[in-house]
Specification:
The chain has 324 residues and is α/β, with parallel strands linked by helices. The chain has 11 helices and 12 strands. Helix 10 links the parallel strand 11 and strand 12.
Amino acid sequence: MERGPGEDGDYGRIWALSDGRAGNARQAEALAAALSAQPDALHLAPHAPWRWAAPRRLPFASHAFGRDFAAGLDAAPALAIGCGRQAALATRLAGQRGARTVQILDPRIDPRHWDLVVVPEHDALRGDNVLVARGSLHPVDDAWLAAARDAHPAFGALPGPRIAVLLGGDSRHGRFDVAAFTALADRLDAVVAREGGSLLLTGSRRTSPAVRDALRARYAGRAASVWADARDGANPYAGMLGWADRIVCSSDSVNMLSEACATHAPVHVFAPGPLDGAPQRFVDGLIADGRARPFGDALPAFDVTPLRETARIAAEVRAVLFAR
């Protein structure tokens, strides 16, 4: 008898669609990888006028992403997973050609245009076909952390506690500027002077050039590891998470907080000021649940349960879209 999608984990071809921005690509590709050993990751750049209208479908929208994508629609995958507004148009087009569709993040139009929509809990969208996740989707689990430790063995020899420090940046919800970085660094230095340990610091995509310069000026040659930008080589972020005994993360990044909370390390949130809207609700929820604590004047250890939503959301996608 011919087997259908979903039997023995065989779901057919899966596309992970995004605009290539790190946060969007990581979510789409993490969910796709949880469903398939070999998903196809497609980073798309739509042309005008479709870029401005996405995910609304203007005439001739199949041409929005170029000739190769249009040709690929002739053999649409079994499942198309997209993240972000631009990818939402691509998943709609794949759905028209017979693919099942999952859209991550609120597409800002009726979710009925997709089979499933996945949103973080702190967003308002709800519906019969809407799955709700705590924070962002990502690949961090025990296997990922073990691979990260294997790839960065030198971190394992550092004096403990190893303190991974994840720096965000300005967003429409709040600021993380040089003054905020300086306040954070003053607290970190006081903790290490009192309790010992090793600092592992990294910037992120949204970290401003001024904060990157301040990070390098303050900690180059002093901390165990400093990554400000590509001039410092490859970002050892994964190794930092893999070896961390404590994690300090700025409050502005839902993505980094979600990944930090997927480890076995206590997470301490540094908030230079209040955030607006959904990110503040996410931080408040982590603290209320005991998964994270505000960073004050110390970094105490506390018992944690890793927060890992990707596997749960993947199981719900299987149950809804690939049930026998």
